[in-house]
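Quick one:
INPUT:
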Protein backbone atom coordinates (compact mmCIF):
# COMPACT_ATOMS: atom_id res chain seq x y z
CA UNK A 1 0.00 0.00 0.00
CA UNK A 2 1.44 3.40 -0.94
CA UNK A 3 1.56 6.32 1.49
CA UNK A 4 -1.21 8.23 -0.28
CA UNK A 5 -3.62 5.30 -0.06
CA UNK A 6 -2.86 4.83 3.64
CA UNK A 7 -3.44 8.53 4.38
CA UNK A 8 -6.75 8.33 2.56
CA UNK A 9 -7.80 5.40 4.71
CA UNK A 10 -6.83 7.23 7.88
CA UNK A 11 -8.90 10.22 6.81
CA UNK A 12 -11.94 8.09 6.03
CA UNK A 13 -11.75 6.20 9.31
CA UNK A 14 -11.28 9.35 11.39
CA UNK A 15 -14.16 11.06 9.58
CA UNK A 16 -16.46 8.15 10.31
CA UNK A 17 -15.64 8.08 14.03
CA UNK A 18 -16.27 11.82 14.32
CA UNK A 19 -19.57 11.65 12.43
CA UNK A 20 -20.71 8.73 14.60
CA UNK A 21 -19.83 10.77 17.70
CA UNK A 22 -22.03 13.61 16.47
CA UNK A 23 -24.94 11.27 15.75
CA UNK A 24 -24.70 9.54 19.14
CA UNK A 25 -24.50 12.83 21.03
CA UNK A 26 -27.58 14.13 19.20
CA UNK A 27 -29.50 10.93 19.97
CA UNK A 28 -28.55 11.02 23.64
CA UNK A 29 -29.52 14.68 23.98
CA UNK A 30 -32.89 13.81 22.44
CA UNK A 31 -33.34 11.11 25.10
CA UNK A 32 -32.57 13.72 27.77
CA UNK A 33 -35.38 15.85 26.33
CA UNK A 34 -37.75 12.87 26.29
CA UNK A 35 -37.22 11.84 29.93
CA UNK A 36 -40.44 12.45 31.93
CA UNK A 37 -40.05 15.38 34.30
CA UNK A 38 -41.97 13.60 37.06
CA UNK A 39 -39.13 11.08 37.41
CA UNK A 40 -36.11 13.07 36.29
CA UNK A 41 -36.71 16.76 36.91
CA UNK A 42 -37.08 19.61 34.47
CA UNK A 43 -33.62 20.47 33.14
CA UNK A 44 -32.25 18.35 30.30
CA UNK A 45 -28.49 17.94 30.06
CA UNK A 46 -26.24 18.86 27.15
CA UNK A 47 -22.84 17.60 26.09
CA UNK A 48 -19.80 19.72 26.87
CA UNK A 49 -16.91 19.19 24.47
CA UNK A 50 -13.34 19.60 25.69
CA UNK A 51 -10.37 19.24 23.32
CA UNK A 52 -7.06 17.84 24.54
CA UNK A 53 -3.60 17.17 23.14
CA UNK A 54 -0.80 14.76 24.01
CA UNK A 55 2.92 14.20 23.52
CA UNK A 56 4.50 10.80 22.93
CA UNK A 57 7.24 9.33 25.14
CA UNK A 58 9.91 11.38 23.31
CA UNK A 59 8.08 14.64 24.02
CA UNK A 60 7.01 15.11 20.39
CA UNK A 61 3.49 16.27 19.54
CA UNK A 62 1.23 13.24 19.29
CA UNK A 63 -2.27 14.32 18.35
CA UNK A 64 -5.20 14.38 20.74
CA UNK A 65 -8.95 14.29 20.81
CA UNK A 66 -12.20 15.73 22.08
CA UNK A 67 -14.02 14.66 25.24
CA UNK A 68 -17.80 14.97 25.05
CA UNK A 69 -19.31 14.67 28.54
CA UNK A 70 -22.88 15.06 29.74
CA UNK A 71 -24.37 14.95 33.23
CA UNK A 72 -28.11 15.20 32.94
CA UNK A 73 -31.43 14.21 34.41
CA UNK A 74 -31.55 10.85 32.59
CA UNK A 75 -27.85 10.20 32.06
CA UNK A 76 -26.06 10.38 35.39
CA UNK A 77 -22.80 10.36 33.43
CA UNK A 78 -22.08 9.73 29.76
CA UNK A 79 -18.95 10.25 27.72
CA UNK A 80 -18.63 10.03 23.95
CA UNK A 81 -15.00 10.58 23.00
CA UNK A 82 -12.99 10.62 19.80
CA UNK A 83 -9.24 10.71 19.52
CA UNK A 84 -6.57 10.56 16.85
CA UNK A 85 -3.11 9.98 18.27
CA UNK A 86 0.29 9.19 16.78
CA UNK A 87 3.98 9.03 17.61
CA UNK A 88 6.22 6.25 18.91
CA UNK A 89 5.44 3.56 21.44
CA UNK A 90 7.63 3.55 24.51
CA UNK A 91 10.19 0.69 24.40
CA UNK A 92 8.51 -1.33 27.18
CA UNK A 93 5.18 -1.31 25.29
CA UNK A 94 6.33 -2.20 21.77
CA UNK A 95 6.29 -5.96 22.15
CA UNK A 96 2.61 -5.91 23.11
CA UNK A 97 1.32 -4.32 19.89
CA UNK A 98 1.36 -6.11 16.52
CA UNK A 99 3.93 -4.55 14.18
CA UNK A 100 5.39 -2.21 16.80
CA UNK A 101 8.40 -4.38 17.52
CA UNK A 102 9.56 -3.87 13.93
CA UNK A 103 8.78 -0.13 13.87
CA UNK A 104 7.66 1.80 17.00
CA UNK A 105 5.71 4.42 15.07
CA UNK A 106 1.93 4.27 15.30
CA UNK A 107 -1.29 6.09 14.41
CA UNK A 108 -4.67 5.35 15.98
CA UNK A 109 -8.12 6.88 15.69
CA UNK A 110 -11.36 5.82 17.31
CA UNK A 111 -14.53 6.48 19.25
CA UNK A 112 -15.24 5.29 22.77
CA UNK A 113 -18.39 5.77 24.82
CA UNK A 114 -19.85 4.71 28.13
CA UNK A 115 -23.26 5.62 29.58
CA UNK A 116 -24.42 5.36 33.21
CA UNK A 117 -28.02 6.25 34.17
CA UNK A 118 -29.84 7.42 37.26
CA UNK A 119 -32.54 4.82 36.62
CA UNK A 120 -31.41 1.29 37.58
CA UNK A 121 -33.82 -0.20 35.04
CA UNK A 122 -31.83 1.35 32.18
CA UNK A 123 -28.74 -0.74 31.38
CA UNK A 124 -25.30 0.80 31.25
CA UNK A 125 -23.56 0.44 27.91
CA UNK A 126 -20.10 0.59 26.39
CA UNK A 127 -19.10 0.85 22.73
CA UNK A 128 -15.83 1.56 20.99
CA UNK A 129 -14.37 1.11 17.53
CA UNK A 130 -10.92 2.07 16.28
CA UNK A 131 -8.44 1.90 13.41
CA UNK A 132 -4.81 1.31 14.38
CA UNK A 133 -1.75 1.59 12.16
CA UNK A 134 1.76 0.36 12.96
CA UNK A 135 3.76 -1.56 10.38
CA UNK A 136 0.43 -3.41 10.22
CA UNK A 137 -3.10 -1.93 10.17
CA UNK A 138 -6.33 -3.21 11.66
CA UNK A 139 -9.77 -2.43 13.08
CA UNK A 140 -11.07 -3.37 16.50
CA UNK A 141 -13.90 -2.65 18.88
CA UNK A 142 -17.32 -3.84 19.83
CA UNK A 143 -20.25 -3.10 22.12
CA UNK A 144 -21.51 -4.67 25.33
CA UNK A 145 -24.50 -4.17 27.61
CA UNK A 146 -24.48 -4.11 31.41
CA UNK A 147 -27.87 -4.38 33.12
CA UNK A 148 -27.39 -3.52 36.79
CA UNK A 149 -30.36 -5.31 38.39
CA UNK A 150 -30.07 -9.04 39.09
CA UNK A 151 -33.44 -9.71 37.48
CA UNK A 152 -32.30 -8.13 34.21
CA UNK A 153 -28.89 -9.81 33.84
CA UNK A 154 -30.12 -12.81 31.89
CA UNK A 155 -29.97 -13.79 28.25
CA UNK A 156 -33.80 -14.10 28.28
CA UNK A 157 -34.37 -10.49 29.29
CA UNK A 158 -35.89 -8.52 26.36
CA UNK A 159 -33.10 -5.93 26.46
CA UNK A 160 -30.46 -8.65 26.28
CA UNK A 161 -32.20 -10.47 23.45
CA UNK A 162 -32.65 -7.33 21.36
CA UNK A 163 -29.11 -6.08 21.96
CA UNK A 164 -27.60 -9.42 20.92
CA UNK A 165 -29.89 -9.53 17.88
CA UNK A 166 -28.70 -6.09 16.78
CA UNK A 167 -25.05 -7.12 17.07
CA UNK A 168 -25.74 -10.35 15.20
CA UNK A 169 -27.38 -8.39 12.39
CA UNK A 170 -24.31 -6.16 12.08
CA UNK A 171 -22.07 -9.22 11.85
CA UNK A 172 -24.29 -11.23 9.53
CA UNK A 173 -24.33 -8.39 6.99
CA UNK A 174 -20.54 -8.85 6.73
CA UNK A 175 -20.20 -12.57 7.38
CA UNK A 176 -17.01 -12.86 5.33
CA UNK A 177 -15.11 -10.67 7.80
CA UNK A 178 -17.31 -10.76 10.93
CA UNK A 179 -18.26 -14.22 12.26
CA UNK A 180 -20.87 -13.47 14.91
CA UNK A 181 -20.34 -16.58 17.03
CA UNK A 182 -16.60 -15.88 17.26
CA UNK A 183 -17.09 -12.22 18.18
CA UNK A 184 -19.80 -12.99 20.73
CA UNK A 185 -17.59 -15.60 22.41
CA UNK A 186 -14.66 -13.19 22.34
CA UNK A 187 -16.81 -10.61 24.15
CA UNK A 188 -18.02 -13.13 26.74
CA UNK A 189 -14.44 -14.15 27.48
CA UNK A 190 -13.00 -10.64 27.42
CA UNK A 191 -15.53 -8.95 29.70
CA UNK A 192 -15.12 -11.56 32.42
CA UNK A 193 -14.10 -10.83 35.99
CA UNK A 194 -11.75 -13.70 36.74
CA UNK A 195 -11.39 -12.87 40.41
CA UNK A 196 -15.20 -13.06 40.85
CA UNK A 197 -15.84 -15.78 38.26
CA UNK A 198 -18.61 -13.77 36.63
CA UNK A 199 -19.28 -11.68 33.52
CA UNK A 200 -19.37 -7.90 33.79
CA UNK A 201 -22.70 -7.74 31.98
CA UNK A 202 -24.53 -9.81 29.39
CA UNK A 203 -21.97 -9.39 26.61
CA UNK A 204 -22.31 -8.30 23.02
CA UNK A 205 -19.49 -8.53 20.49
CA UNK A 206 -15.76 -7.83 20.65
CA UNK A 207 -13.15 -8.00 17.89
CA UNK A 208 -9.57 -6.90 17.39
CA UNK A 209 -6.74 -7.11 14.84
CA UNK A 210 -9.31 -7.25 12.01
CA UNK A 211 -7.37 -7.18 8.75
CA UNK A 212 -9.19 -9.45 6.31
CA UNK A 213 -7.28 -8.21 3.27
CA UNK A 214 -10.33 -6.21 2.17
CA UNK A 215 -10.00 -2.85 3.95
CA UNK A 216 -13.27 -1.48 2.62
CA UNK A 217 -15.14 -4.52 3.94
CA UNK A 218 -13.50 -4.16 7.34
CA UNK A 219 -14.45 -0.48 7.48
CA UNK A 220 -18.01 -1.21 6.36
CA UNK A 221 -18.42 -3.75 9.17
CA UNK A 222 -16.97 -1.34 11.73
CA UNK A 223 -19.39 1.33 10.54
CA UNK A 224 -22.32 -1.07 10.87
CA UNK A 225 -21.34 -1.86 14.46
CA UNK A 226 -21.73 1.86 15.17
CA UNK A 227 -25.01 2.08 13.27
CA UNK A 228 -26.39 -0.99 15.04
CA UNK A 229 -25.53 0.54 18.38
CA UNK A 230 -27.17 3.82 17.40
CA UNK A 231 -30.34 1.96 16.42
CA UNK A 232 -30.70 -0.39 19.38
CA UNK A 233 -29.46 1.44 22.46
CA UNK A 234 -31.78 4.47 22.34
CA UNK A 235 -34.65 2.02 21.83
CA UNK A 236 -33.65 0.14 24.99
CA UNK A 237 -33.47 3.39 26.94
CA UNK A 238 -36.93 4.42 25.76
CA UNK A 239 -38.30 1.00 26.75
CA UNK A 240 -37.22 1.57 30.37
CA UNK A 241 -37.24 5.34 30.72
CA UNK A 242 -40.63 5.63 32.47
CA UNK A 243 -40.13 2.83 35.01
CA UNK A 244 -39.92 4.12 38.60
CA UNK A 245 -37.27 2.70 40.90
CA UNK A 246 -36.85 2.09 44.61
CA UNK A 247 -34.02 2.93 46.99
CA UNK A 248 -33.20 -0.78 47.17
CA UNK A 249 -32.83 -0.92 43.37
CA UNK A 250 -30.60 2.17 43.41
CA UNK A 251 -28.45 0.48 46.06
CA UNK A 252 -28.20 -2.65 43.90
CA UNK A 253 -27.16 -0.49 40.96
CA UNK A 254 -24.37 1.17 42.92
CA UNK A 255 -22.99 -2.15 44.12
CA UNK A 256 -23.08 -3.62 40.61
CA UNK A 257 -21.20 -0.60 39.30
CA UNK A 258 -18.28 -1.71 41.43
CA UNK A 259 -17.80 -4.62 39.03
CA UNK A 260 -17.44 -2.11 36.22
CA UNK A 261 -14.67 -0.31 38.06
CA UNK A 262 -12.90 -3.55 38.88
CA UNK A 263 -12.86 -4.66 35.25
CA UNK A 264 -11.65 -1.35 33.85
CA UNK A 265 -8.79 -1.05 36.34
CA UNK A 266 -7.70 -4.68 36.34
CA UNK A 267 -8.32 -6.04 32.85
CA UNK A 268 -9.29 -3.47 30.23
CA UNK A 269 -6.72 -3.26 27.44
CA UNK A 270 -8.05 0.09 26.22
CA UNK A 271 -7.37 1.64 29.60
CA UNK A 272 -3.81 0.27 29.59
CA UNK A 273 -3.23 1.41 25.99
CA UNK A 274 -4.44 4.93 26.72
CA UNK A 275 -2.41 5.36 29.88
CA UNK A 276 0.78 3.87 28.41
CA UNK A 277 0.59 6.02 25.28
CA UNK A 278 0.20 9.31 27.13
CA UNK A 279 -3.53 9.67 26.52
CA UNK A 280 -5.78 12.07 28.36
CA UNK A 281 -6.29 10.62 31.85
CA UNK A 282 -9.65 12.34 32.35
CA UNK A 283 -10.91 10.89 29.07
CA UNK A 284 -9.54 7.41 29.77
CA UNK A 285 -11.04 7.22 33.24
CA UNK A 286 -14.31 8.94 32.34
CA UNK A 287 -15.79 5.48 31.86
CA UNK A 288 -15.90 5.14 35.64
CA UNK A 289 -19.39 5.47 37.13
CA UNK A 290 -19.91 8.62 39.19
CA UNK A 291 -21.14 6.89 42.35
CA UNK A 292 -20.19 3.33 43.38
CA UNK A 293 -20.48 1.20 46.50
CA UNK A 294 -18.59 -1.82 47.79
CA UNK A 295 -20.65 -3.17 50.71
Amino acid sequence: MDAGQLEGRKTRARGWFESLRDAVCAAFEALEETAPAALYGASAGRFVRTPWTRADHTGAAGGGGVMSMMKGRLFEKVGVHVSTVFGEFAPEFRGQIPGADADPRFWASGISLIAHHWNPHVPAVHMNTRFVVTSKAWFGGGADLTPVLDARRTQDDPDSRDFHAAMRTACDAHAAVAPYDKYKKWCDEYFFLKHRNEMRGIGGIFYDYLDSGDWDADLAFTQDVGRAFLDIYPALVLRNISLPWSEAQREEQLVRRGRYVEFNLLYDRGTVFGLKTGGNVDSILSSMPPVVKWP
